[in-house]
Every structure is written in C-alpha cells, then in structure tokens.
C-alpha cells in the first residue's frame, strides 16, 4: 500500500454522498494514528449539472464541470480520482480523456468484487437512478450476470421519489419514510429472484442499510474505498 498517495474526490454529486465516501475511505484505511491516513483532497462541486437530467432529457452536460473539477484536484496533487456518483460514470470516458490522473471506475471494481465474493450470484437487483437504468450502465460491466430492475411505477414512485422527492435524500432526508420506499423497492426485486441488491446510486446507502433486507446489499462506494486504500 502506498500511504503517500493523494486521493482526490470529484464530488458534489451530491454533497452528502461525497462526505459519505470520505468517511468510507477513513474507515477502510488500516491505521494506528492520524499520520497513517491518506491525504485526501475534495472538490465538492454541487454546481455540476444533474447527470440523470442530462441523459434523459437533454439537459446541460455535466462533462465540462466534471473536467474542471478534476483539473482542480490534479492541481492539488491528487494521484487518483473517485466520483461518488454512479450515474456520472456514464460520462467517465469523456472526462478521463481530458485528465492526466486516472479515475477509479467504481462500476468495474464492483463487478470484480462480485465475481470474487459472490461468484454464485445469478441475478442482481439494481436500485439506481432512471438515468443509470435506462442507459443499462451496469450491464456494460456486469455483462455475464442477469440484472433486474424495478418496474416503471416502483422506479418513479419509490426509488426516484426516495432520491429526488420533495422529502428525498437529495433534500437532506434519510429517515424512516425514505428508507421504507427503498426497502419496498428492494423487496420487490428479491421477490423476483434477486440474489444480491446493488445500491447503484450513492444516495441510496445513506438510507437503505443491510439490516433492512434479507439478501446481501452491495454499496459500490464501500468497494471503491477499499480498493483505493489497499492498492
């Protein structure tokens, strides 16, 4: 492990998910004192346009903003970047082409983790934004595992409501009401045969916990924190 490595978080997508990733990096690092931790530089830029809106409705592209934020992190000495937003990985190649520092591909690392730890999984249930689902972003990496998704009604009235709703996670709410929406959506996928649930939006693990459901719950950002601190 290179404990002199400087980790950069290309954040703000959203701010609480950014803070959560930083905490996950801290928890994943094996230390005995402050000085054993990695130096982490964070640019939490909530002005980056919404990724789902850009993908589904032709909204302003987030790429320029993500590139500018990445370049800020490069100037601060970051040697590897993490993006605490699953949907943002739709744009990862465009952003990476403009940067000299590598971006850790969280979806790719999640696939490797599943194949190593859950090698017998046949069907994965994905809870994510509609942008991530409609682009089949996870299927690009989980090409040999069946992915199942909430139906349209559940996606809009439960998953997206939990994330983007007036009292949703992006509004700062991670309590019982939001958790119940996500638990219900997850249980529908489990009833359809999901062996594993992926929390494929960085806001989801802020409310949905392993204790809430009967099948394993995978948080890609926990995997990312583990990878970046161990390699």
TrEMBL record:
Protein name in the entry: Aspartate racemase
Keyword Acyltransferase carried by entry: no
NCBIfam families associated with the record: asp_race (TIGR00035)
Record flagged with keyword Isomerase: yes
Keywords from the named record: Isomerase
One Gene Ontology molecular-function label: amino-acid racemase activity
Coiled coil: none
InterPro entries linked: Asp/Glu/hydantoin_racemase (IPR015942), Asp/Glu_race (IPR001920), Asp_race (IPR004380)
Organism field: Garciella nitratireducens DSM 15102
The family this protein is said to belong to: Belongs to the aspartate/glutamate racemases family.
Pfam families: Asp_Glu_race
């Amino acid at each position: 492990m290179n404990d002199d490595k400087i980790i950069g978080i290309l954040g703000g997508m959203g701010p609480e998910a950014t803070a959560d990733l930083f905490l996950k990096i801290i928890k994943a690092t094996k230390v005995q004192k402050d000085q054993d931790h990695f130096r982490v530089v964070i640019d939490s830029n909530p002005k980056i346009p919404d990724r789902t809106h850009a993908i589904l409705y032709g909204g302003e592209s987030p790429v320029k903003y993500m590139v500018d934020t990445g370049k800020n992190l490069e100037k601060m000495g970051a040697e590897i970047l993490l993006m605490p937003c699953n949907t943002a990985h739709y744009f990862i190649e465009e952003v990476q082409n403009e940067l000299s520092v590598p971006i850790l591909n969280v979806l790719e690392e999640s696939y490797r983790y599943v194949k190593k730890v859950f090698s017998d999984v046949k069907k994965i249930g994905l809870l994510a934004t509609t942008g991530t689902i409609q682009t089949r972003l996870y299927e690009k990496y989980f090409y040999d595992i069946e992915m199942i998704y909430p139906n349209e009604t559940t996606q809009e009235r439960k998953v997206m409501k939990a994330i983007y709703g007036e009292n949703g996670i992006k509004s700062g709410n991670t309590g019982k009401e939001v958790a119940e929406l996500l638990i219900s959506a997850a249980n529908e996928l489990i009833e359809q045969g999901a062996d594993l649930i992926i929390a494929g939006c960085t806001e989801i693990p802020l409310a949905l916990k392993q204790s809430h459901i009967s099948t394993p719950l995978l948080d890609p950002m926990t995997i990312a924190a583990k990878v970046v601190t161990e390699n």
